[in-house]
Amino acid sequence: MARYDSLIGSVGHTPLVGLPRLSPSAEVRLWAKLEDRNPTGSVKDRPALFMVEQAERSGLLRPGCTVLEPTSGNTGISLAMVCRLRGYRLVCVMPENTSVERRQLLEMYGAEIVYSPAAGGSNEAVRVAKRMADEHPDWVMLYQYGNPANALAHYESTGPEILEDLPTITHFVAGLGTTGTLMGTGRYLREHVPGITVVAAEPRYGELVYGLRNIDEGFVPELYDPTLIDSRFSVGPEDALRRTRQLIEEEGIFAGPSTGAILHAALGFAAKAVQAGERADIAFIVCDGGWKYLSTGAYAGTLAEAAEKIDGQLWA
Amino acid sequence: MLASTATRGLAVAIEVRIPTILRPHTGGEKSVEGKGETLADLLDDLESRHGGLKARLVTDGALARFVNVYVNDEDVRFMGGMQAPLKDGDSVTVLPAVAGG
């Protein structure tokens, strides 16, 4: 059934597609969960919808409310769509070192943007949003970093969808930002697949993004539970972009740079399985398409040129 | 101590990348070299030349909450933490924890 009463009904139920060329063998296979097929083009449609609906059920969100959210882009765009359709005003706090496509999409959806300083990346956006929430006690901050509905969206939708499509799954690999995808999907898969390996891939940005004034300004999302993952990798821009290009060239999938980082980690585990002589079905998340990153230069020129261009940008 | 250096040694140093906010401890250097068979050893070795660095990275014997350390891009917390084994030629990256989303 692919008919829905409105756009919101079409969130989720994304395809899981095999990667016959990038998979090392018939026994060690890679599978891409195409979350770019969600209504606004990213995996964040799931948590955005769940967080809004949970807040409506609990009475926190009422008609005419203003929603406030710190975001590097995708969650903001997803919330902007949901808020537009549900009649809420949305204020996004977004770091200024994000692509122009994100700004334009948010503006088209009618969201208001407050920019936070580039240095410190999303940590600064969180800080600014928390301050604004204090100043506007009537606004509703859904707060994706600590809202259980973020992880629950993946526990109730992403996880079951993957297991239904790939009962033989051995590894799950996803990006680590709010940690919601890994916490929710990881918990569900751990409960249903004995011995599954859950892997986190996080983007390693340029120095500007880590330009905090103090190490104590580091930020770990409240949702994060390290016991739900088995290993965690930091993937730099060159590796991420190289894999992003490989994904287009070999499999025809046009994904954003963070997906390249995830694929990099997934391929590492595929190689380990081959070496150990073990079978593996490795599912990973395609977080979004490459469209919103075209202006950054991530897809033009040599790898080194592209990596240099996204240095200092939030590319995931 | 010379003997022990010699037996362990001729060690190819481990490269340690330092984030901007901790460079005051390394005289502004982006990357320094050290050695050690575990992360704890390495941090002790670094402390002998870059005083004050260890106290910024370690709290009560464990890595500080907002600090991430990666060995060849893998998070050491999943490799044994302070006891994570190191070998010659490893690349260690220290970064403050940042969010995404």
Layout of secondary structure:
The complex is a heterodimer of chains A (316) and B (101).
Chain A: E1 16-18, E2 28-34, H1 45-57, E3 66-70, H2 74-86, E4 89-95, H3 100-108, E5 112-116, H4 121-135, E6 140-141, H5 148-165, E7 171-175, H6 180-192, E8 197-203, E9 231-235, H7 237-251, H8 257-276, E10 280-286, H9 303-310
Parallel strand pairs in A: 2-10, 3-4, 3-6, 4-5, 7-8, 7-10, 8-9
Antiparallel strand pairs in A: 1-2
Helix pairs in contact in A: 1-2, 1-5, 5-6, 7-8, 7-9
Chain B: H1 2-8, E1 14-17, E2 31-34, H2 39-49, H3 53-57, E3 58-59, E4 62-63, E5 67-71, E6 74-75, E7 91-96
Parallel strand pairs in B: 1-7
Antiparallel strand pairs in B: 1-2, 3-4, 5-6, 5-7
Supply the key terms.
heterodimer; A: 316 residues; alpha/beta; Rossmann fold; 2 domains; 4-stranded parallel sheet; 9 helices; B: alpha+beta; 5-stranded mixed sheet; 3 helices; 25% strand
Give a quick account of the main beta sheet of chain B: strands, pairing sense, barrel closure.
5 strands, mixed
Broad structural category of chain B: alpha+beta
Mean pLDDT of chain B: 90
- In sequence order, what are the helices and strands of chain B, one letter per element? HEEHHEEEEE
- CATH architecture label name of the largest domain in chain A: 3-Layer(aba) Sandwich
The largest chain-to-chain contact, stated as pair and per-chain residue counts, equals: A-B, 48 and 25 residues
Determine the mean pLDDT of chain A.
96
Summing up helix and strand content along with how strands pair, one would put the structural category of chain A as alpha/beta
Question: What is the class of the largest domain in chain A in the CATH system?
Answer: Alpha Beta
